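Here is one chain, start to finish.
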Amino acid sequence: MNIQWYPGHMTKTRRMMAENISLVDIVIELLDARIPFSSKNPDIDNLARDKFRIIILNKVDLADDKKTRLWEEYFNEKGFKVVLVNSVSGNGIKNITEFSRELMKEKIERLRKRGRIFVPIRAMIVGIPNVGKSTLINKFVGKATAKTGDKPGVTRGKQWVKIKKDFELLDTPGILWPKFDDRFVGIKLAVTGAVNDDILDSRTLSLNLIEYLRKLYPDSIKERYKIDFDESVSSDCILKKIGEARGFKIKGGEVDLDRSANILIDEFRGCKLGKITLEAPDEFENL
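Its structure:
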């Protein structure tokens, strides 16, 4: 399964980000805590190479706590400030402004010595589609400033958002990169909702998800659907067992595999299979 999705507006977004990067001191990048490596846009490091950097591991409420801490250490060692956030509840958000002020402290002091009494902090916030950026901004501000939705690509234009008197965010649309060199990156982006579901074959995607889950969290499937299987059972058979357990049938008594696939993907995204992270830092140590 080779997934590629790069709508035309993303080319425009990348150009807009490059044109506006000089207006900010800090680039804040949101990552999905369930797939921190796969949700990190490789274009951002080059775009923001001369800026202070903050990484937000968002959706920590859906991710494996132990692996989240490992990812926090991983990015800290690479020189990023790291904030763990649940953008729905707001947990961790206040650390974003604290870290931003810490990064800007010396520059603000220098400017004040030159007579600049008021120095606002300006940051660009970036991330892949559906990573929770608009939800985070709305929680930050305390009102619905940014458009939110379940489908990726809701935000289509840039906007300045005033967070506090001295702190402003330049919000940008979610952006992927033109080609996923690793097909597994595309699969993980798809199962977490960063790629438009309309272009996907949900049954094939669900089989890929089962492969990850049976390797990393086999009990999550068994306990959720009250089924049993061993290593010799194929992923196709597991998907069929899920459908049988839920009573998903079509004409003739056959299992409705499409409905089974959709429910598995939806319940994974909704954390009904437990707190799951699909990758760990040690997989990428040599990259």
